[in-house]
Amino acid sequence: MARAVTPQRKALNTAIAALIGALIFFPIFWTVLTSFKTETQAIADPPVWFAFDWTLENYTAVNQRSDYLLHFWNSVVISVGSTLLGLMIAVPAAWAMAFVPGRRTKDILMWMLSTKMLPSVGVLVPIYLLFRQLGLLDTRMGLVIVLTLINLPIIIWMLYTYFREIPGEILEAARMDGASLREEVTHVLLPMAVPGMASTVLLNIILAWNEAFWTLNLTAAKAAPLTAFIASYSSPEGLFYAKLSAASTMAIAPILIMGWFSQKQLVRGLTFGAVK
Amino acid sequence: MGQITLKKVRKAFGDVEVIPPLDLQINDGEFVVFVGPSGCGKSTLLRLIAGLEDVSSGEIEIDGRPSAELPPAKRGLAMVFQSYALYPHMSVRKNIAFPMKMAKISQDEQNRRIEAAASALNLTEYLDRKPGQLSGGQRQRVAIGRAIVREPAAFLFDEPLSNLDAALRVGMRLEISELHKRLATTMIYVTHDQIEAMTMADKIVVLRAGRIEQVGAPLELYENPRNIFVAGFIGSPRMNFIEGPEAARHNAHTIGIRPEHIDVSATEGDWQGRIGVAEHLGSDTYFHIHDTGLAETVTVRASGEVTLRHGETVFLTPQAEKIHRFDNEGLKQ
Questions:
Q1: What is the CA angle A165-A171-A174, rounded to 5?
Q2: Cβ separation of B89 and A192 shorter than 8 Å?
Q3: What CATH number is attached to the domain comprising B104?
Q4: Which of A27, A32, B149, B315 has the most crowded Cβ, counting Cβ within 10 A?
């Protein structure tokens, strides 16, 4: 139903939205800005806005001290790897739950979600010991496994929601047309679920990219992704704000750019099924 | 070939038996319509034949081959769904080609069959469109095209016309009937619309609560219904049922008389009543007569030229040889 919105009201709404947007974006903006300051300017009081000597020395220092590319590559492998592995498990699981639900399907879904409410630190020691036993500590494989398991409930939930929107008759038609189960999934179900799949993949890459608890606790040097790379700059001694900001900027830039280009897809996927 | 035999086919969901053991013979080339009110099990029966549901017990033979355990694709049947069930991400051409692609038919043969089906169904100019860009009738034709190219032993239709508007429905009804004449392939067609059943079928199977009430040619069911249910379900407007002394006079518990078998007169007749609603269709007029003392309403079909109006008193005379007599169990005497 159309409602009358006065131009003033519209302007006010726009202003409020812009303000909230600015508030949310401000920390990122300030981080990027700080990364171009000297350490002294970074902690100056009152803060300096734009009138400072722009410098790239923090970036140089960070690159000299650590191997950005290695961490970047670790982040890519871990986030993409855990997402792909997660999809391989989640697609069949979500298919089963959406199209051949049993009496306990709803319960299983809730139970899976409940694992997300468990404080991670509660299982840190057992997982650490397991990883040590299996030789998975500080390996990318180990992180791929643990992040897959952590994000699996979310992937399954999202795919389940998208799959449920797909009429069962279309899959039955494929079955009548001679498609095997695998062909039914690859030729009909997945292409129809592309928007949902895309946002699931994007969201999961972002979550895995930003995951810090497990990446910090289970890696040392070899498999450390960008989160561990940032953390290594928060040392308690000396001036470090500007370098930390430079490291943070470098760590968030790839995912920020990816998010920027895929925001339309992401929003569409996340609100898919919400409005019927 | 497309001969389908159901032997003691039974379906239960948990403790609920939706189809008690049932036998049915469908001959090659027949157009068989399953008809019945919603929830009578007609769609379930079709899905059992298709293999989309598993039988709880019993056997389904397709051309003499036991098929109850076969997956849908191995039964050699093609199905047209109520929602059309087209693949929205594929063009019309790819939709029609899909079953052939699954069957690994050569590309040349695929193209030949697609062209043939498209020209038969007037789809040639739409081959490169997506289903979303087509009207309901065109989508239904694509669904039929997808079924034809498989060259199935039998076609299964699950209420294919119920999503179309009335005018289109009549057109598609004729198209499907013509298709049947041309292909001479067995067709099983599910509908709740008895007009579709009457106009299209070689053989009608009337179902109620999973049981077959009667099987027969359309006119056979119309003229000789086995019980009150079939008598009331087949024919439009519905047959009038009269109980009480008037039925007793005919030595029956209930008598049934179709609206078209009652003569109406302004001056004389066996029964007297007052016109409630008169529905003028042009060619015919349906009078709903009240206050006859026989039933709440007696429906009469008269020629469109009869000029009686609301509130007028009329006299009705049933055609004696057209009266159906039923016993107290509803069976025809």
A1: 150
A2: yes
A3: 3.40.50.300
A4: B149
Q: Which residue among B232, B248, B266 closes a domain? A: B232
Give yes or no for residue B259 having a pLDDT over 80.
yes
Angle between helices B92-102 and B107-120 (to 10 degrees): 130
B85/A167 CB distance under 8 A: yes
| Contact criterion met (CB below 8 Å) for B277 and B289 | no
Residues B101 and B225 in one domain: yes
Query: What are B73's two structure tokens?
Result: 């694709």
Residue B331 lies in a domain: no
Q: Is residue B180 part of a domain?
A: yes
What is each CA distance from B223 to A91, A210, B234, B235, in whole angstroms?
Answer: 56, 76, 10, 10
B166 and B20 both lie in a single domain: yes
How close, in Å, is residue B48 to chain A by CA atoms? 12
Which among A176, A183, A188 is the nearest to B87, CB-wise?
A188
Eight-state DSSP code of residue A184: I
The per-residue pLDDT for B73 is 87
Question: Which CATH number does the domain housing residue B269 bear?
Answer: 2.40.50.140
Instruction: For residues B156 and B266, state if they share a domain.
Output: no
Can you tell me the mean pLDDT for B215-237?
Answer: 93
Q: Which residue has the higher pLDDT, A20 or A3?
A: A20
For residue A87, what are the contacts with CB-CB under 8 A and spacing of at least 6? A155, A197, A200, A201
Q: State the fold for domain A66-232.
A: MetI-like fold (1.10.3720)
Q: What pLDDT is stored for residue A275 in this prediction? A: 41
Using a CB-CB cut-off of 8 Å, the residues of chain B touching A173 are 79, 81, 85-87, 146
pLDDT recorded at residue A1: 52
Backbone angles phi, psi at B62, to 5 degrees: -115, 115
Q: Could you give the number of structural domains in chain B? A: 2
Residues in A closer than 8 angstroms to B81, CB to CB, are 169, 172-173
Domain ranges in chain A are: 66-232
* Mean pLDDT value of segment B303-308: 84
How many angstroms from the chain centroid is the CA of residue A1? 36
Secondary element (H or E) of residue B183: helix B166-183
Range of the domain at B228: 4-232
Whether B158 and B306 map to the same domain: the answer is: no
Residue B51 lies in a domain: yes
- At A8, list the tokens: 């003033």
- Only one residue has tokens 């895309």, namely A198
pLDDT at A276: 34
Residue A264 has pLDDT above 80, yes or no: no
Give the number of other CB atoms < 10 A from CB of residue B274. 13
Residue B29 tokens read as 């080339």
- Put simply, whether B200 touches A (Cβ < 8 Å) is no
Question: What's the CA gap between B289 and B265, in Å, rounded?
Answer: 12
Residue B321, both tokens = 């040889």
Based on the domain organization, do B265 and B153 belong to the same domain?
no
